[in-house]
Design a protein that fits this description.
By secondary structure, the protein is an alpha/beta fold. It is built from ten helices and twelve strands. Helices cover 32% and strands 16% of the residues. Strands 7-8-9-6-5-4-3-2-1-10-11-12 form a twelve-stranded mixed β-sheet.
Amino acid sequence: MAGLCDSFQRGISYLRISVTDRCNLRCVYCMPPEGIPLVSHDDILSFEEILLVVRASVEMGIDKIRITGGEPLVRTGVADLIHMISSVKGVKDISMTTNGTMLARYAEDLVHAGLHRINISLDTLKHDRFKQITRTGELSDTLKGIEAARKAGLNPVKINMVPMQGINDDEIVDFARMTLAAGWHVRFIELMPLNRTAEFVPSQVLRKKIEALGMLEPFHGIAGNGAARYFRLPGATGTIGFISPVSEPFCQDCNRLRLSATGMLFPCLFSDNGVDIKTPVRNNADLEAVKQLVTAAIAAKPQNHRFVAGAAEKTKMSKIGG
């Protein structure tokens, strides 16, 4: 296979960059009520350090960049970083994942900086439940962010919904209806078993519930990086996507690396072990040295994420119970 590949001949073209460990929400499946211990500002990669990793990665063949957090918009000047990345020759796509609560303020600036696409995390359409899930947030802020993103031209705006048994799985059909009523592009993402907050809902179960609205037809006309399978309800202008890392792992097609805010380059989104980028960079590592570190991370990329084992049995039990 031509281009940048790992030891399993998977093409690597996508770098996720966490720009901060901080978030303005406290979602129940993400962190405890009191939050998490915060890393000092000095231990977070600077924009210039991030840019060096981007330049090295792009010269090696990566051409898609996603900005994440924590919540990326809580980091001051993140639009400046996007502008810096957009100036790197060879970058074809810059996207962001956000909770959307601050997006109404920054959407136009992000577009002017060079952002192409945006994913907005939203797990409920009910105001009281939004506050319960996020512990601190207001649903109206995220809804305003969605509208601002659409007006600014960040289309298609993708809505990421994580269904959780007994918490918000009664809203699955409501989210699907939004692809009919408002042209939303909704993606249902299986909850990873990182903690025991809730049980995931298999994508096959979601499809059966959604098809009460009509037969789902495969759809291939939406931009993305390969993890989601897209469908459309009859008459809908929006789409429905399923990302199924537990019940239907897509590791065989994984094309990504993950750079943490503290400068660790992980070969898998769910890896615990990564390559230290920050220390060499702060010891004046040049572009070629950083490329060697990227090569080392790619060489360590596993065949499957650590939750693949037992996923089929978990899915079977979920179907029995649900």
